[in-house]
Amino acid sequence: MARVHLETIRKIYPNGFEAVTPTSFDIPDGEFVVLVGPSGCGKSTLLRMIAGLEDITEGTLSIGDRVVNGVDPADRDIAMVFQNYALYPHMTVRRNIAYGLQNRKIDKATIEQKVQEAATMLNLTEYLDRKPAQLSGGQRQRVAMGRAIVRDPALFLFDEPLSNLDAKLRNQMRIEIKALQRRLGVTSIYVTHDQVEAMTMADRIIVMNGGKVEQIGTPHEVYHNPASTFVASFMGAPPMNLLEARFEDGMVRINGGTPVMPAPAARTGNVTLGIRPEDVRIDDAGDIPFHVDLVEELGAHRLLHGQLGDQTFSIHAMKDEPAPQGATRLSLIPDNICLFDSETGKRI
Ligand code: ATP
Protein backbone atom coordinates (compact mmCIF):
# COMPACT_ATOMS: atom_id res chain seq x y z
CA MET A 1 0.00 0.00 0.00
CA ALA A 2 1.40 3.39 -0.90
CA ARG A 3 -1.08 5.85 0.37
CA VAL A 4 0.60 9.18 1.06
CA HIS A 5 -0.63 11.26 3.97
CA LEU A 6 0.41 14.80 4.86
CA GLU A 7 -0.69 16.11 8.24
CA THR A 8 -0.18 19.87 8.76
CA ILE A 9 3.14 19.81 6.91
CA ARG A 10 4.87 23.17 7.07
CA LYS A 11 8.12 24.58 5.75
CA ILE A 12 9.97 27.53 7.16
CA TYR A 13 13.37 28.05 5.52
CA PRO A 14 16.31 28.99 7.78
CA ASN A 15 15.94 32.63 6.71
CA GLY A 16 12.47 32.63 8.32
CA PHE A 17 10.46 32.46 5.08
CA GLU A 18 7.36 30.28 5.29
CA ALA A 19 7.32 28.57 1.88
CA VAL A 20 4.54 26.07 2.76
CA THR A 21 1.86 26.91 5.33
CA PRO A 22 0.41 23.97 7.32
CA THR A 23 -0.95 21.66 4.65
CA SER A 24 -2.88 18.39 4.95
CA PHE A 25 -4.06 15.99 2.29
CA ASP A 26 -4.30 12.32 1.55
CA ILE A 27 -3.36 10.53 -1.69
CA PRO A 28 -4.89 7.08 -2.02
CA ASP A 29 -2.83 4.20 -3.39
CA GLY A 30 -2.39 4.37 -7.15
CA GLU A 31 -3.60 7.94 -7.61
CA PHE A 32 -1.88 10.42 -9.95
CA VAL A 33 -1.83 13.80 -8.22
CA VAL A 34 -0.55 16.96 -9.86
CA LEU A 35 0.70 19.87 -7.76
CA VAL A 36 0.25 23.00 -9.84
CA GLY A 37 0.71 26.70 -9.24
CA PRO A 38 2.70 29.74 -10.32
CA SER A 39 6.42 30.10 -9.81
CA GLY A 40 7.28 30.42 -6.13
CA CYS A 41 4.01 28.98 -4.77
CA GLY A 42 5.87 26.25 -2.85
CA LYS A 43 5.13 23.20 -4.98
CA SER A 44 8.79 22.13 -5.36
CA THR A 45 9.38 22.69 -1.66
CA LEU A 46 6.43 20.41 -0.87
CA LEU A 47 7.67 17.75 -3.30
CA ARG A 48 11.21 17.95 -1.94
CA MET A 49 9.91 17.47 1.60
CA ILE A 50 8.07 14.33 0.44
CA ALA A 51 11.26 13.15 -1.28
CA GLY A 52 13.31 13.78 1.86
CA LEU A 53 15.52 16.34 0.11
CA GLU A 54 14.26 19.13 2.36
CA ASP A 55 13.58 18.97 6.12
CA ILE A 56 9.98 19.17 7.27
CA THR A 57 9.67 22.03 9.76
CA GLU A 58 6.41 20.80 11.30
CA GLY A 59 3.84 18.11 10.63
CA THR A 60 3.81 14.40 9.85
CA LEU A 61 4.45 12.72 6.50
CA SER A 62 3.46 9.10 5.96
CA ILE A 63 4.17 6.92 2.92
CA GLY A 64 2.31 3.64 3.18
CA ASP A 65 2.04 2.80 6.88
CA ARG A 66 5.31 4.49 7.80
CA VAL A 67 5.95 7.95 9.17
CA VAL A 68 8.98 9.01 7.11
CA ASN A 69 9.85 12.45 8.53
CA GLY A 70 13.28 11.27 9.69
CA VAL A 71 13.85 8.63 7.01
CA ASP A 72 16.66 9.05 4.50
CA PRO A 73 15.56 9.76 0.86
CA ALA A 74 17.14 6.45 -0.24
CA ASP A 75 15.05 4.53 2.28
CA ARG A 76 11.67 6.08 1.45
CA ASP A 77 10.90 3.66 -1.39
CA ILE A 78 10.41 6.49 -3.86
CA ALA A 79 11.78 7.22 -7.32
CA MET A 80 12.13 10.75 -8.56
CA VAL A 81 12.21 12.04 -12.14
CA PHE A 82 13.73 15.49 -12.55
CA GLN A 83 13.50 18.23 -15.14
CA ASN A 84 17.16 17.82 -16.11
CA TYR A 85 16.85 13.97 -16.17
CA ALA A 86 20.00 13.61 -13.99
CA LEU A 87 21.57 11.03 -16.36
CA TYR A 88 25.25 10.11 -16.18
CA PRO A 89 26.80 11.23 -19.51
CA HIS A 90 29.63 8.67 -19.44
CA MET A 91 27.30 5.69 -18.92
CA THR A 92 25.27 3.86 -21.52
CA VAL A 93 21.49 3.91 -21.42
CA ARG A 94 21.62 0.36 -20.00
CA ARG A 95 23.85 1.41 -17.11
CA ASN A 96 21.90 4.59 -16.50
CA ILE A 97 18.67 2.61 -16.15
CA ALA A 98 20.32 -0.05 -13.98
CA TYR A 99 22.02 2.53 -11.79
CA GLY A 100 19.40 2.62 -9.04
CA LEU A 101 19.58 -1.16 -8.62
CA GLN A 102 23.29 -1.54 -8.22
CA ASN A 103 23.51 -0.85 -4.51
CA ARG A 104 20.68 -3.21 -3.76
CA LYS A 105 22.46 -6.56 -3.90
CA ILE A 106 20.40 -7.70 -6.86
CA ASP A 107 22.06 -10.28 -9.13
CA LYS A 108 23.17 -9.29 -12.63
CA ALA A 109 20.66 -11.45 -14.48
CA THR A 110 17.73 -9.91 -12.59
CA ILE A 111 19.04 -6.41 -13.23
CA GLU A 112 19.38 -7.15 -16.96
CA GLN A 113 15.86 -8.57 -17.06
CA LYS A 114 14.40 -5.49 -15.34
CA VAL A 115 16.32 -3.18 -17.67
CA GLN A 116 15.02 -5.09 -20.69
CA GLU A 117 11.44 -4.94 -19.41
CA ALA A 118 11.64 -1.19 -18.79
CA ALA A 119 13.33 -0.60 -22.16
CA THR A 120 10.57 -2.53 -23.94
CA MET A 121 7.89 -0.56 -22.13
CA LEU A 122 9.59 2.71 -23.07
CA ASN A 123 10.64 1.80 -26.63
CA LEU A 124 14.31 2.09 -25.74
CA THR A 125 15.63 -1.37 -26.60
CA GLU A 126 17.56 -0.22 -29.68
CA TYR A 127 19.26 2.58 -27.72
CA LEU A 128 20.54 0.59 -24.73
CA ASP A 129 24.19 0.83 -25.80
CA ARG A 130 24.13 4.54 -26.58
CA LYS A 131 25.26 7.36 -24.29
CA PRO A 132 22.80 10.12 -23.33
CA ALA A 133 24.47 12.62 -25.72
CA GLN A 134 23.43 10.35 -28.63
CA LEU A 135 19.74 10.56 -27.71
CA SER A 136 16.97 13.07 -28.37
CA GLY A 137 15.39 14.99 -25.47
CA GLY A 138 12.37 12.70 -25.42
CA GLN A 139 14.56 9.59 -25.37
CA ARG A 140 16.59 10.99 -22.47
CA GLN A 141 13.36 11.64 -20.63
CA ARG A 142 12.38 8.01 -21.19
CA VAL A 143 15.72 6.82 -19.81
CA ALA A 144 15.03 8.84 -16.65
CA MET A 145 11.61 7.16 -16.49
CA GLY A 146 13.26 3.77 -16.99
CA ARG A 147 15.57 4.35 -14.08
CA ALA A 148 12.56 5.16 -11.90
CA ILE A 149 10.53 2.16 -13.09
CA VAL A 150 13.15 -0.55 -12.48
CA ARG A 151 13.23 0.31 -8.79
CA ASP A 152 9.57 -0.74 -8.35
CA PRO A 153 9.02 2.16 -5.97
CA ALA A 154 5.95 2.73 -3.82
CA LEU A 155 5.81 6.30 -5.05
CA PHE A 156 6.90 8.23 -8.14
CA LEU A 157 7.78 11.89 -7.74
CA PHE A 158 8.04 14.04 -10.86
CA ASP A 159 9.53 17.56 -10.75
CA GLU A 160 8.56 19.39 -13.98
CA PRO A 161 9.89 16.45 -16.02
CA LEU A 162 8.76 17.79 -19.40
CA SER A 163 9.75 21.43 -19.21
CA ASN A 164 12.92 21.00 -21.28
CA LEU A 165 11.04 19.48 -24.24
CA ASP A 166 9.43 21.29 -27.15
CA ALA A 167 5.65 21.64 -27.20
CA LYS A 168 4.94 18.71 -29.51
CA LEU A 169 7.15 16.29 -27.63
CA ARG A 170 5.70 17.50 -24.35
CA ASN A 171 2.21 16.55 -25.53
CA GLN A 172 3.41 13.12 -26.60
CA MET A 173 5.38 12.47 -23.40
CA ARG A 174 2.55 13.49 -21.13
CA ILE A 175 0.34 10.88 -22.76
CA GLU A 176 3.13 8.28 -22.42
CA ILE A 177 3.78 9.06 -18.76
CA LYS A 178 0.09 8.98 -17.93
CA ALA A 179 -0.41 5.66 -19.74
CA LEU A 180 2.62 4.16 -18.04
CA GLN A 181 1.44 5.27 -14.62
CA ARG A 182 -1.98 3.72 -15.28
CA ARG A 183 -0.36 0.50 -16.33
CA LEU A 184 2.01 0.32 -13.35
CA GLY A 185 -0.55 1.65 -10.85
CA VAL A 186 2.14 3.42 -8.81
CA THR A 187 1.03 6.38 -6.67
CA SER A 188 2.47 9.50 -8.30
CA ILE A 189 2.97 13.13 -7.40
CA TYR A 190 3.80 15.38 -10.34
CA VAL A 191 4.82 19.03 -10.03
CA THR A 192 4.24 21.48 -12.86
CA HIS A 193 3.42 25.13 -13.45
CA ASP A 194 1.63 24.12 -16.66
CA GLN A 195 -2.12 23.97 -16.15
CA VAL A 196 -2.64 21.96 -19.35
CA GLU A 197 -0.34 19.24 -18.02
CA ALA A 198 -2.26 19.32 -14.74
CA MET A 199 -5.66 19.07 -16.46
CA THR A 200 -4.68 16.27 -18.83
CA MET A 201 -2.60 14.05 -16.53
CA ALA A 202 -4.11 14.29 -13.06
CA ASP A 203 -6.64 12.11 -11.32
CA ARG A 204 -6.71 14.99 -8.83
CA ILE A 205 -5.14 18.42 -8.96
CA ILE A 206 -3.80 20.35 -5.99
CA VAL A 207 -3.68 24.05 -6.86
CA MET A 208 -1.21 26.03 -4.76
CA ASN A 209 -0.75 29.76 -4.32
CA GLY A 210 1.57 31.62 -1.94
CA GLY A 211 2.48 28.50 0.05
CA LYS A 212 -1.18 27.47 0.53
CA VAL A 213 -3.45 24.91 -1.05
CA GLU A 214 -6.22 26.81 -2.87
CA GLN A 215 -8.18 23.78 -4.03
CA ILE A 216 -7.97 20.01 -4.32
CA GLY A 217 -10.23 18.34 -6.86
CA THR A 218 -10.55 16.40 -10.09
CA PRO A 219 -9.64 18.32 -13.24
CA HIS A 220 -13.37 18.64 -13.92
CA GLU A 221 -14.08 20.10 -10.46
CA VAL A 222 -11.17 22.51 -10.50
CA TYR A 223 -12.08 23.75 -13.98
CA HIS A 224 -15.86 23.98 -13.64
CA ASN A 225 -16.14 24.69 -9.92
CA PRO A 226 -13.12 26.78 -8.98
CA ALA A 227 -12.94 27.53 -5.26
CA SER A 228 -11.53 31.02 -5.79
CA THR A 229 -10.81 33.68 -8.39
CA PHE A 230 -7.18 32.54 -8.21
CA VAL A 231 -8.07 29.02 -9.36
CA ALA A 232 -10.54 30.40 -11.92
CA SER A 233 -7.87 32.51 -13.52
CA PHE A 234 -4.98 30.04 -13.16
CA MET A 235 -6.75 27.07 -14.75
CA GLY A 236 -7.86 27.48 -18.36
CA ALA A 237 -6.39 29.34 -21.33
CA PRO A 238 -7.76 31.86 -21.80
CA PRO A 239 -8.78 31.98 -18.14
CA MET A 240 -12.29 32.35 -16.79
CA ASN A 241 -13.65 35.85 -17.46
CA LEU A 242 -14.04 37.75 -14.19
CA LEU A 243 -16.43 40.72 -14.17
CA GLU A 244 -17.25 43.21 -11.44
CA ALA A 245 -20.95 42.81 -10.72
CA ARG A 246 -23.56 43.80 -8.13
CA PHE A 247 -26.41 42.16 -6.26
CA GLU A 248 -29.37 44.49 -6.80
CA ASP A 249 -33.16 44.01 -6.65
CA GLY A 250 -32.76 40.26 -6.30
CA MET A 251 -30.59 39.94 -9.40
CA VAL A 252 -26.90 39.73 -10.25
CA ARG A 253 -26.23 42.70 -12.52
CA ILE A 254 -23.23 43.47 -14.71
CA ASN A 255 -22.21 46.38 -16.87
CA GLY A 256 -24.07 49.05 -14.87
CA GLY A 257 -27.39 47.20 -14.53
CA THR A 258 -27.93 44.31 -16.98
CA PRO A 259 -29.45 41.39 -15.02
CA VAL A 260 -27.84 38.02 -15.75
CA MET A 261 -29.20 35.69 -13.06
CA PRO A 262 -31.17 35.75 -9.80
CA ALA A 263 -29.09 36.67 -6.75
CA PRO A 264 -28.71 34.12 -3.96
CA ALA A 265 -31.16 35.06 -1.14
CA ALA A 266 -30.49 38.18 0.93
CA ARG A 267 -27.36 39.27 -0.86
CA THR A 268 -26.46 42.88 -1.56
CA GLY A 269 -23.37 44.78 -2.64
CA ASN A 270 -20.51 43.87 -4.92
CA VAL A 271 -19.72 40.45 -6.29
CA THR A 272 -17.30 39.02 -8.85
CA LEU A 273 -18.97 37.10 -11.66
CA GLY A 274 -16.96 34.37 -13.39
CA ILE A 275 -17.82 32.76 -16.70
CA ARG A 276 -15.67 30.54 -18.94
CA PRO A 277 -15.13 31.80 -22.52
CA GLU A 278 -17.00 28.74 -23.88
CA ASP A 279 -20.08 29.51 -21.77
CA VAL A 280 -20.80 32.73 -23.65
CA ARG A 281 -22.81 32.99 -26.89
CA ILE A 282 -22.72 35.60 -29.60
CA ASP A 283 -26.42 36.38 -29.71
CA ASP A 284 -28.07 39.23 -31.67
CA ALA A 285 -30.98 39.08 -29.23
CA GLY A 286 -28.67 39.11 -26.18
CA ASP A 287 -28.81 42.12 -23.88
CA ILE A 288 -25.07 42.41 -23.20
CA PRO A 289 -23.16 44.65 -25.62
CA PHE A 290 -19.63 43.45 -26.48
CA HIS A 291 -16.93 44.94 -28.66
CA VAL A 292 -14.61 42.45 -30.42
CA ASP A 293 -11.10 43.89 -30.75
CA LEU A 294 -9.20 40.78 -31.85
CA VAL A 295 -10.00 37.36 -33.30
CA GLU A 296 -7.50 34.52 -32.75
CA GLU A 297 -7.96 31.71 -35.28
CA LEU A 298 -7.07 28.32 -33.80
CA GLY A 299 -8.40 25.98 -36.48
CA ALA A 300 -11.22 24.02 -34.86
CA HIS A 301 -12.22 27.06 -32.82
CA ARG A 302 -11.44 30.72 -32.44
CA LEU A 303 -11.05 33.15 -29.57
CA LEU A 304 -12.72 36.56 -29.66
CA HIS A 305 -11.09 39.08 -27.34
CA GLY A 306 -12.60 42.45 -26.57
CA GLN A 307 -14.38 44.74 -24.14
CA LEU A 308 -17.52 44.21 -22.12
CA GLY A 309 -18.19 47.72 -20.82
CA ASP A 310 -14.81 48.74 -19.47
CA GLN A 311 -13.68 45.18 -18.69
CA THR A 312 -11.67 42.83 -20.89
CA PHE A 313 -13.49 39.67 -21.91
CA SER A 314 -12.85 36.61 -24.10
CA ILE A 315 -15.18 34.26 -25.92
CA HIS A 316 -14.53 30.80 -27.31
CA ALA A 317 -16.40 30.15 -30.59
CA MET A 318 -16.42 26.95 -32.65
CA LYS A 319 -15.30 27.32 -36.28
CA ASP A 320 -18.87 27.27 -37.63
CA GLU A 321 -20.16 29.86 -35.14
CA PRO A 322 -20.22 33.55 -36.09
CA ALA A 323 -17.06 35.57 -35.49
CA PRO A 324 -18.10 39.20 -35.67
CA GLN A 325 -15.64 42.07 -35.56
CA GLY A 326 -16.50 45.26 -33.68
CA ALA A 327 -19.82 45.77 -31.93
CA THR A 328 -21.99 42.73 -31.20
CA ARG A 329 -24.18 41.28 -28.45
CA LEU A 330 -23.82 38.38 -26.05
CA SER A 331 -25.72 36.13 -23.75
CA LEU A 332 -24.23 34.11 -20.87
CA ILE A 333 -25.21 30.55 -19.93
CA PRO A 334 -26.58 31.31 -16.44
CA ASP A 335 -26.10 27.77 -15.09
CA ASN A 336 -22.37 28.01 -15.73
CA ILE A 337 -21.82 31.32 -13.94
CA CYS A 338 -19.62 31.21 -10.81
CA LEU A 339 -19.94 33.90 -8.15
CA PHE A 340 -17.01 34.95 -5.96
CA ASP A 341 -16.78 37.24 -2.93
CA SER A 342 -15.31 40.53 -4.22
CA GLU A 343 -13.21 40.99 -1.08
CA THR A 344 -11.78 37.52 -0.48
CA GLY A 345 -12.02 36.03 -3.98
CA LYS A 346 -13.59 32.90 -2.44
CA ARG A 347 -16.48 31.12 -4.14
CA ILE A 348 -19.97 32.09 -2.92
P1 ATP B 1 9.10 27.24 -9.37
O1 ATP B 1 8.01 26.76 -10.26
O2 ATP B 1 9.65 28.57 -9.78
O3 ATP B 1 10.15 26.20 -9.10
P2 ATP B 1 7.85 26.62 -6.83
O4 ATP B 1 6.38 26.79 -6.72
O5 ATP B 1 8.35 25.25 -7.02
O6 ATP B 1 8.40 27.57 -7.94
P3 ATP B 1 9.54 26.70 -4.51
O7 ATP B 1 10.82 26.39 -5.22
O8 ATP B 1 8.94 25.65 -3.67
O9 ATP B 1 8.46 27.26 -5.53
O10 ATP B 1 9.80 27.99 -3.62
C1 ATP B 1 8.78 28.53 -2.81
C2 ATP B 1 9.28 29.80 -2.16
O11 ATP B 1 10.31 29.48 -1.24
C3 ATP B 1 9.85 30.81 -3.13
O12 ATP B 1 9.43 32.10 -2.73
C4 ATP B 1 11.35 30.65 -2.97
O13 ATP B 1 12.01 31.87 -3.21
C5 ATP B 1 11.48 30.26 -1.50
N1 ATP B 1 12.65 29.41 -1.27
C6 ATP B 1 13.00 28.30 -1.95
N2 ATP B 1 14.13 27.78 -1.44
C7 ATP B 1 14.50 28.57 -0.42
C8 ATP B 1 15.59 28.57 0.52
N3 ATP B 1 16.51 27.60 0.52
N4 ATP B 1 15.63 29.57 1.43
C9 ATP B 1 14.68 30.52 1.47
N5 ATP B 1 13.64 30.59 0.63
C10 ATP B 1 13.55 29.63 -0.31
Automatic annotation (TrEMBL):
One GO MF term on file is: ABC-type transporter activity
Cellular component annotations (GO), alphabetically ordered: ATP-binding cassette (ABC) transporter complex, substrate-binding subunit-containing
Question: Which intervals hold domain ABC transporter?
Answer: 4-235
Against Pfam families, the record matches this protein to: ABC_tran (PF00005), OB_MalK (PF17912)
Q: Which SMART domains match?
A: AAA (SM00382)
- Keywords of this protein's UniProt record, alphabetized? ATP-binding, Cell inner membrane, Cell membrane, Membrane, Nucleotide-binding, Sugar transport, Translocase, Transport
- By its UniProt entry, which Gene3D superfamilies does this protein fall under? 2.40.50.100, Nucleic acid-binding proteins, P-loop containing nucleotide triphosphate hydrolases
PROSITE patterns per record: ABC_TRANSPORTER_1, ABC_TRANSPORTER_2
- Coiled-coil annotation reads none
Query: Which family, according to UniProt?
Result: Belongs to the ABC transporter superfamily.
Protein name, as recorded: Carbohydrate ABC transporter ATP-binding protein, CUT1 family
